[in-house]
Write a structure and sequence with these properties.
globular, eight-stranded parallel β-barrel, alpha/beta, Glyco_hydro_1_beta-glucosidase, about 450 residues, carbohydrate metabolism, EC 3.2.1.21, single chain, TIM Barrel
């Protein structure tokens, strides 16, 4: 991959201080459902629901990273990344309602951490990437305040096991996706359709973040934060109805999750007729010191008014190219710059250094690879968004890390294996790994940015 295909020299100058990473998530890559006594999560239930997964696939064996982690670490080492963002499976650590931890499950993460450190890669685990234990969902899941307490207990168990070597942690991944897609409209596990009645799940996830951060710090963590999927919201027109709809969407997708963490208060939800179950002291826990704020970004969102029970609808952006997910996943890199600058202006001194915790794109690719896949569309997407990060840095946004989603093709939730995000192709039947052209491109970018 030639330097001509990399960002311009001016952009590389702004990126020189960035750390570079790649990400995965436990349920999507580990496989090995019964290898060590892992318990059942809401995603196991979701996969078993007829018609829920687009291609009828399951996560088994998928990339089978449980058995092939040395290969993954070698791929990361070949990229030259500074850090690896992976997630810990709650149900592999605590497989049932007994509260007894699973030594075999913990041993897997213990080995992975040691493999990463031996390769001079900083482990950066995520405690929760959507795999809620089934027994907790049966008790209300994230609608139940007690789930936040159970999450803190889980955080302490894994911190006791890994905290002597792991100082960097994400707590909760994309609480917006759990609340809105999982509990509000049922696109993701646990497949509830509660609309705005789902919003107590927001508070309980944010409380879980704060409680877990306390436990992590008692075990030596020095770099702790939450990461949310954020989007730049674009009104469909200048009409009052579309402007109001866009305001409400920004409220529930962005501000509802960022304001309490960064400002210690929720935005006014009167327009939604919702009151969150906040108790005295909760917001102090939620807004306690964050060493970073994580931003997952894939695309901006164009919003128009709707007359249905939800007062907005997501619309395509005219003439914008899009990823394999279709027109509602437009490729508009400047949307990332706009969101980051807006966050800096909105939160000011309350915004800690930002980490781009996920950014990437899926495109149609074969299930089997006979050689390197020339995924130039992905390279174009990544180059544009990394340049967008550079522009935000030039505008004064403090960004310390960029993370590609994903290192590997994986089980893409309700899409099964129909959407492939990886820098590395994975055969869903054999688990064979084949680096794509984007792998070489990202490796060259990291080397050039450090030069």
């Amino acid at each position: 991959m030639t330097s001509a295909s990399l960002p311009e020299t001016s952009s590389l100058t702004h990126l020189a201080r960035l750390r570079w990473s790649a990400a995965t998530a436990a349920f999507q890559i580990e496989g090995a459902r019964t290898a060590d006594g892992r318990g059942r999560s809401i995603w196991d239930d979701f996969v078993d629901m007829p018609g829920r997964v687009r291609d009828g696939s399951t996560a088994e064996p998928g990339p089978d990273s449980y058995h092939r982690s040395p290969e993954d670490v070698a791929l990361l080492h070949g990229l030259g990344v500074d850090r690896y963002r992976f997630s810990v499976s709650w149900t592999r650590v605590l497989p049932d309602a007994s509260g007894h931890s699973n030594p075999k499950g913990i041993a897997y993460y213990d080995r992975l951490v040691d493999q990463l450190l031996a390769a001079d890669i900083t482990p950066f685990p995520t405690l929760y990437h959507w795999d809620l234990p089934v027994h907790l969902e049966e008790q209300g899941g994230w609608l139940n305040r007690d789930t936040a307490e159970r999450f803190a207990e889980y955080a302490e168990i894994i911190a006791e096991a890994l905290g002597d070597r792991v100082a960097h942690w994400y707590t909760i991944n994309e609480p917006v996706s759990t609340s809105l897609q999982g509990y509000a409209i049922g696109e993701l596990a646990p497949a509830r359709t509660m609309l705005f009645d789902s919003l107590p799940t927001v508070h309980h996830q944010l409380l879980a973040h704060g409680l877990a951060a306390q436990r992590l710090r008692t075990h030596g963590a020095t770099h702790v934060g939450i990461v949310n999927n954020h989007t730049a919201v674009v009104p469909a027109s200048l009409s009052e109805n579309d402007q109001t709809a866009a305001y409400i969407y920004d409220l529930i997708h962005n501000r509802l999750f960022a304001d309490p963490v960064l400002l210690g208060e929720y935005p006014d939800l009167a327009a939604l007729g919702v009151e969150l179950p906040v108790r005295s002291g909760d917001l102090d826990i939620i807004s306690a010191h964050n060493d970073f704020y994580g931003v997952n970004f894939y695309n901006p969102t164009r919003i128009g008014a709707s007359g249905g029970p939800v007062p907005f609808e997501i619309l395509p952006i005219p003439d914008a190219p899009h990823t394999g997910f279709g027109p509602l996943w437009p490729i508009v890199p400047e949307g990332l710059t706009a969101f980051l600058i807006d966050a800096k202006e909105r939160y000011g001194v309350h915004l800690p250094p930002v980490i781009i915790g996920e950014n990437g794109a899926s495109f149609p690719e074969p299930d089997h690879a006979d050689g390197m896949i020339d995924d130039r569309d992905r390279i174009h997407y990544l180059r544009g968004h990394i340049e967008a990060v550079a522009e935000a840095i030039a505008a004064g946004v403090d960004i310390e890390e960029y993370t590609v989603w994903s290192l590997l093709d994986n089980f893409e939730w309700a899409e099964g294996f129909t959407q492939r995000f990886g820098l590395v192709h994975v055969d869903s039947e054999t688990s064979a790994r084949t680096p794509k052209a984007s792998y070489d491109w990202y490796r060259a970018l990291i080397a050039e940015a450090r030069a």
